[in-house]
Amino acid sequence: MEKPSNLLLKLSRSLFADTAEQEKFIHAVTNPQPFNPAILWLQSKPTENPFILENPVSWQPEFVDRLALESKPGKHSLHQAGHYYCLDFSSIFAASTLLTIPQPIKLILDMCAAPGGKSIFAWKTLNPELLLCNEVIGKRMGMLISNLRRCQIQPSAAANVDSKILAEKIPQTANLVIVDAPCTGQSLLAKGDKAPGCFHHVTINSNANRQKRILANSAKIVASQGYLAYMTCTYSTAENEQVSEWLLSKFPEFQPVTVPHLEKYRSHLTEIPCYRMWPQDKLGAGAFTVLFQNTSDGERNQLPADFLDLTRFTNL
């Protein structure tokens, strides 16, 4: 067993008052375990499922299957043909807040879209008239576009644009903006991956400030009565609950949405209805998710006719 760092011990105490729960959390982070792979079906499930399935959890969408540990869905021919998308079950949990959003939906913008899992989940769930997938890190664009094309996600468009530019170009246009925010990625450790400096306060504060900037720009794009979904794959309250509280203080027209099917996962670290998956739950490495609604009145702005040209969005 790897000895927990002082920073991890400090984090565990800030997350849980109960020492037994602190120990379970630390053990899950420092002793990585495999988690069941999951797939999101985009076409009809075959009559005979090629995989061994785990029993679904109560909130699991019907178009998602959680597979036996030994499954290798990424190597199956159905994957190459775009019949399904492989997605971490923690990501399914985070994106499941979108199941509460009523249809019809005209426009969805995924602000931090690569490699495309949350975009594809939103497209499958809400059937928008247009899906815009943005990714500010240029070297991740190839993976995003490849996944959208393989899975035949249409109509969609992808671009590499800063959130500030989008806030200026298309204010109050989107029925839903998804911010799967860049974060310290502390949950990567529970999967056996690396996340250098992820528990250091400087790294945490830097990521929290970046998230606030992206969320502020994203909030300006949400149309009246539209939604803003914020999620991370990290544990720190400074990047999750505290950022959510900051957003509500800066944009009082936004209100948190209660997600009934996730009530048992509600965070005990704030009064805001937001939700967490912990690694000790053994469903996934961890996730934080919250859904906000813009309660202001008004008409949704239309996308400018020359929008795709102005912002370097490419139709797929």
UniProtKB/TrEMBL annotation:
S-adenosyl-L-methionine binds at C112, A113, A114, P115, G116, G117, K118, E135, D162, D180. Its EC number is 2.1.1.-. The active site is at C233. InterPro entries: MeTrfase_RsmB-F_NOP2_cat, MeTrfase_RsmB-F_NOP2_dom, RCMT, SAM-dependent_MTases_sf. Keywords: Methyltransferase, RNA-binding, S-adenosyl-L-methionine, Transferase. Pfam families: Methyltr_RsmB-F. This is Ribosomal RNA small subunit methyltransferase F. It comes from Microcoleus asticus IPMA8. The lineage of its organism: Bacteria, Bacillati, Cyanobacteriota, Cyanophyceae, Oscillatoriophycideae. The gene is rsmF.
